[in-house]
């Protein structure tokens, strides 16, 4: 039953042959009397009550009539390790036994290619796995029609480990060392003792008699010829007597769930003996139906007064009906099949956006089917760093785990799908992969295949848009109609763009590939997303930099003083509005040998300068030398690095830029907004530089006043106010907001011709309060007088009315 190590190459070949020849159909139910395996129920019957005491008695009986053996010392030690420490989940015992059964079926199929008679005839020729449960006796049985084992195989495969290096492996395990030798031994069978007190293996090989192997993991096992049980023809049946504390494995639903989780795509049908309740006709109803045949067909049938009878029917039902789509060639699979398989695999109710399906060959061979879902998982949105990847790892169609953080980089955790390999080295429990270079190879190929898929989609959308634009220009159709249509890649970007941005920050090996997938708005593409490649195509002749500016909104950046001259001269500027964007620019540094240049940093260059430009700049520096020095001294050396003539300003008087290697104003805002930040590292803040526009009237007038009188208070107030407003417009916050507010109030007073000394004093406040009190009292007195006058008029009217009616007149006449 256990895999012999020397047969591993044969098993690998069998897996491929089984793929090509074994059909999978839809869920089907066969008649029990036709499908019930010979000897399965009888074998359970002879086992008696599976309590610990009954299992002990049964084992003693087997010991009396069979040949007693002792486990090889290494096996005994290995079993102890497996049961007590190696396996972290008991569920995997069923996966191991089903996998062993699949290997046995693979082997007999392979051998039958050269000797068809080995399969036999009728039911014996069927290659299948059958599982039955006995809840009352707490027994789980697994039967396969595989190659079976001889008596010698039972001793060698279940009693010894015929592999060199076993002792070294066990010593490392017991010393707590790494498991780099794991994967060398076919010892999955022993995991059955995680849930069993006693195990019985009934097997029949074509070249030997039918034997029973029995053990309760006490260091001994018994092998006897099976003369009492019904012949099983060929194959192996494992009867597992479950421990008292694991009786859930005798429940039908539990077994179904385990098969679906671990063995859903095994290459052979797995049957489970299940029950269902059906309605059966009573004898009276049968007679009534016979009489109705003789009556008029139009006569209305009378309702039965008796309730219908029900009956429990037991039948074999296929549990692994889903086809392993990834084993087929991509050209053979329809999109509907991909969609159905995706919903089965992921549990999603929506179709995927797209998928990549490929087979990798070379040092590591594997197949992969990876889907891009419609939406980003909420868990990834809420906690990116704790999100789990969505790929499942299979080996020879057996599920291993869905918790391999190294199988995909974190930024692609939204992907769903699976990887299946026949060559990956496994540990004993099939639960953890070795620290092996194969994982790195798989990861590398998965990432590149998926990024290439996104690039193909983006390129296809671009070609389609170019073609539509050509048709629009020829026919004169409205461009706005076409612009409203969202392309497939735009949908992908809007849903998964943030994750791809994180990839630029985290995945240095694929940074260039990811950069080509980035999308953003620019000054020349304000309404449609564009990329770096499109930006480069639109660049001006001689342009050597890619210009960008970062802020909170596209509208704000379009009006920013940082980009005034850039836009005026016809340069395209990228608008970065996402908090991740400036991090990305810092990580990329360049694209296609073009430097990314932040328009808010002091190193901004606008192409090469001619001799006239250089001479003009030199003259302006001389003209404004006294003003720039005076302004810097006024603000204070601790707050400003210098005052310079600006090349980026066109209409604004001044702007504050930061040093090349420090945080920009936008980055400072982002860092200060971090929830878990106790204090921002200020040494990363860029040094501020005030750039002035020498052609602006305010700056020209300020220069004239400073040249005339450096102590001019009006000039000082104006200079300070210009500094504060430049800070605000550049994205900074003035350190002394109160002083800034006072300067603004002073400007307002001047515009309203209010004297500077006029202000609010306590004495003036008290006088105004007294005046308000007098006015309130006067209003109250007037209200009371008006009320008294109205009451007097009403009283006078009542007296007149009374006299009028006494004279015999009608009151309505009055």
SSE layout:
Elements: H1 8-21, E1 29-30, H2 32-35, H3 40-45, H4 52-65, E2 67-70, H5 73-86, H6 92-114, E3 129-134, E4 139-144, H7 151-159, H8 166-174, E5 196-204, E6 210-215, E7 220-225, E8 235-242, H9 252-262, E9 270-280, H10 283-292, E10 309-318, H11 335-346, E11 354-360, E12 366-372, H12 378-382, E13 390-395, E14 398-401, E15 416-421, H13 437-475, H14 479-483, H15 488-506, H16 511-515, E16 521-522, H17 532-538, E17 545-550, H18 554-558, H19 564-568, E18 573-576, H20 581-588, E19 590-591, E20 594-598, H21 611-623, H22 625-635, E21 642-645, E22 654-658, H23 665-672, E23 688-692, H24 697-708, H25 713-729, H26 737-751, H27 762-806
Helix pairs in contact: 1-6, 5-8, 15-20
Distance between the termini: 122 Å
From the spread of the alpha carbons, the general shape counts as: elongated
Mean pLDDT: 79
Largest sheet: 10 strands, mixed
Name the helicity range: 40-55%
Instruction: Report the portion of residues in β strands.
Output: 15-25%
Integer-rounded radius of gyration: 43 Å
State the secondary-structure class. alpha+beta
Ranges where pLDDT stays below 50 over 5 or more residues in a row are 1-51, 162-169, 177-186, 427-432
- For the biggest β-sheet, the strand order reads 1-10-9-3-4-8-5-6-7-2
Total strands: the figure is 23
Contiguous helical run count: 27
């Amino acid at each position: 039953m256990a895999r012999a190590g020397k047969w591993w190459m044969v098993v690998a070949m069998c897996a491929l042959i089984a793929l090509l020849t074994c059909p999978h159909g839809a869920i089907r139910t066969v008649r029990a009397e036709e499908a019930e395996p010979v000897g399965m129920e009888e074998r359970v019957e002879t086992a008696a009550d599976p309590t610990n005491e009954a299992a002990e008695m049964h084992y003693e009986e087997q010991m009396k009539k069979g040949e007693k053996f002792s486990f090889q010392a290494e096996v005994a030690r290995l079993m102890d390790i497996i049961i007590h420490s190696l396996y972290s989940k008991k569920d995997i015992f069923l996966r191991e036994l089903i996998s062993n059964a699949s290997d046995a079926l693979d082997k007999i199929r392979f051998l039958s290619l050269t000797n068809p008679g080995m399969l036999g005839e009728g039911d014996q020729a069927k290659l299948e796995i059958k599982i039955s449960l006995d809840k009352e006796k707490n027994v789980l049985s697994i039967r396969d029609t595989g190659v079976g084992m001889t008596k010698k195989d039972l001793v060698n495969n279940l009693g010894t480990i015929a592999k060199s290096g076993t002792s070294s492996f066990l010593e490392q395990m017991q010393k707590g060392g790494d498991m780099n030798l794991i994967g060398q031994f076919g010892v999955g069978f022993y995991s059955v003792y995680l849930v069993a007190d006693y195990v019985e293996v009934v097997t029949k090989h074509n070249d030997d008699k039918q034997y029973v192997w029995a053990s309760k993991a006490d260091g001994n096992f018994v092998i006897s010829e099976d003369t009492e049980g019904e012949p099983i023809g060929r194959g192996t049946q494992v009867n597992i007597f479950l421990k008292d504390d694991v009786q859930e494995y005798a429940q039908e639903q539990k077994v179904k769930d385990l098969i679906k989780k671990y063995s859903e795509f095994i290459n052979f049908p797995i049957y489970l003996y299940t029950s269902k309740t059906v309605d059966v006709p009573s004898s009276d109803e049968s007679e009534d139906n016979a009489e109705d045949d003789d009556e008029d067909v139009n006569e209305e049938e009378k309702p039965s007064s008796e309730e219908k009878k029900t009956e429990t029917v037991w039948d074999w039902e296929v549990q692994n009906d889903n086809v392993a789509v990834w084993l087929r060639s991509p050209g053979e699979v329809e999109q509907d099949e991909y969609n159905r398989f995706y919903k089965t695999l992921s549990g999603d109710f929506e179709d995927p956006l797209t998928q990549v399906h490929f087979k990798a060959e070379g040092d590591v061979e594997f197949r992969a089917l990876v889907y891009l879902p419609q939406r980003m998982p909420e868990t990834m949105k809420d906690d990116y760093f704790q999100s789990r990847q969505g790929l499942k790892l299979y080996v020879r169609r057996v599920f291993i785990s869905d918790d391999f953080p190294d199988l995909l980089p974190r930024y692609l955790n939204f992907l769903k799908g699976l990887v299946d390999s026949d060559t990956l080295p496994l540990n004993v429990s099939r639960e953890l992969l070795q620290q092996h270079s194969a994982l790195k190879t798989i990861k590398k190929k998965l990432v590149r295949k998926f990024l290439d898929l996104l690039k193909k989609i983006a390129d296809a959308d671009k070609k389609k848009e170019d073609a539509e634009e050509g048709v629009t220009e020829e026919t004169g159709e409205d461009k706005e109609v076409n612009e409203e249509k969202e392309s497939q890649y735009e949908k992908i970007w809007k849903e998964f763009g943030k994750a791809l941005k994180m990839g630029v920050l985290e995945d240095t090996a694929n940074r260039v590939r990811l950069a080509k997938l980035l999308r953003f708005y620019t000054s020349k593409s304000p309404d449609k997303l564009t990329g770096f490649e499109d930006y480069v195509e639109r660049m001006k002749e001689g342009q050597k930099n890619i210009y960008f500016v970062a802020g909170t909104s596209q509208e704000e950046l379009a009006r920013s003083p940082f980009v005034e001259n850039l836009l005026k001269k016809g340069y395209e500027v990228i608008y970065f509005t996402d908090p991740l964007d400036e991090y990305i620019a810092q990580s990329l540094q360049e694209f296609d040998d073009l430097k990314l240049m932040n328009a808010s940093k002091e190193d901004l260059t606008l192409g090469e300068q001619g001799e006239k430009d250089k001479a003009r700049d030199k003259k302006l520096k001389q003209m404004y030398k006294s003003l720039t020095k005076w302004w810097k001294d006024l603000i204070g050396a601790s707050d400003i690095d210098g005052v310079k003539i600006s090349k980026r300003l066109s209409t604004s008087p001044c702007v504050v830029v930061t040093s090349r290697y420090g945080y920009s104003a936008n980055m400072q805002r982002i860092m200060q907004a971090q929830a878990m930040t106790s204090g921002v590292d200020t040494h990363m803040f860029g040094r501020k530089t005030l750039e002035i526009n020498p052609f602006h009237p305010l700056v020209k007038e300020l220069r004239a006043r400073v040249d005339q009188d450096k102590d001019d208070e009006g000039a000082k107030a104006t200079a300070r106010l210009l500094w504060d407003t430049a800070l605000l417009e550049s994205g900074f916050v003035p350190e002394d907001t109160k002083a800034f507010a006072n300067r603004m109030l002073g400007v307002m007073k001047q515009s309203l011709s209010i004297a500077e000394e006029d202000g609010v004093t306590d004495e003036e406040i008290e006088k105004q309060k007294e005046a308000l009190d007098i006015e309130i009292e006067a209003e109250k007195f007037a209200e009371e007088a008006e009320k008294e006058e109205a009451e007097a008029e009403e009283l006078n009217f009542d007296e007149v009315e009374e006299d009028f009616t006494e004279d015999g007149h009608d009151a309505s006449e009055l």
